[in-house]
Amino acid sequence: MGYYNSFLVKVWTDNGEKLLRGHIQHVGTEKDIYFLKWEKMVDFMQAHIKWNFNQRMYEDESDSFYPQE
Fold first, then answer.
1. Domain locations in the chain?
2. pLDDT given for residue 68 in this prediction
3. In degrees, to the nearest 5, what angle opens at C-alpha 57 toward C-alphas 31 and 6?
């Protein structure tokens, strides 16, 4: 099996507010952060994965995670 990371992500609103709040934990290290901006969640994941999220995952777009219609 290859190298992998697992994360637990929780997202919620308080008392009907439109502001989303979140918490992410890296399962292996148990390190965690709370966040208000998605960018903070992505930064946290990127720090653990050590992979540039802006790079393309596949050379061929047909090799994506999304099901073909």
1. 7-49
2. 47
3. 25
